[in-house]
Amino acid sequence: MEESINKNFIVFSLCNIEYAVDISYIKEIIKLREIVQVPKSPDFVEGIVQLRDEIVAIIDLAKRLKIDNTSINLKKRKIIIVNLSERILGLQVDSVGEVLKVSDDQIHPVPQTIATVDINYLKGVIKIEDRVILLMNIDKILSVDELCELAANS
Questions:
Q1: Which of 51, 64, 74, 146 is the most exposed, having the fewest neighbouring CB atoms within 10 Å of its CB?
Q2: Which residues of 101-113 are buried (b: 16+ CB within 10 A; e: fewer)?
Q3: Residues with Cβ within 8 Å of residue 137, at least 6 apart in sequence
Q4: Percentage helix, strand, coil for the chain under 3-state DSSP, each rounded to 5
């Protein structure tokens, strides 16, 4: 019998929807702070922040995923600092929950009914008890061109 492998994920929310990201991408989680806007940047780029000795571009993940997020309390928002294609990037989210240990048999494919929609950023669906958590494919959040453009602007 094959043994199931456990993986750790950070769970966060956007507009009351739970998402998870593999913990290996996470550098740290910080409180929302003052963000310096960068002119002529894409609408989902909130701007940049200084994080110790680095300048980090901040992506509003709700805007990037085209989720209406206007009713969320700004004071509770967090920034998840991730390593993405050897670049440091901040993902602004509504809140960060727990570290979740998930076995392979709890991760299911994206349902075929929505697989035709542009959902490259989804890797699967985690089902735990009565919870359904969307598993992010963090490598697909931004295209290579968008990553290069962010690097040039920050």
A1: 74
A2: ebeeebbeebeee
A3: 120, 121, 122, 123
A4: 20, 50, 30
Q: Kindly report the number of other CB atoms within 10 A of residue 38's CB atom.
A: 16
Question: Is the distance from CB of 23 to CB of 99 less than 8 angstroms?
Answer: yes
CATH of domain 6-153: 2.40.50.180
Complete DSSP assignment for 79-108: EEEEEETTEEEEEEESEEEEEEEEEGGGEE
* Identity of the residue numbered 113: T
d(CA 90, CA 133): 21
Return the domain boundaries, the chain. Answer: 6-153
Contact 120, 31 (CB under 8 A): no
Scanning the chain, the segments in alpha helix (DSSP H) are 61-64, 112-115, 144-153
Average pLDDT over every residue of 24-50: 92
Q: Which of 96, 83, 82, 80 is nearest to 29 (CA)?
A: 80
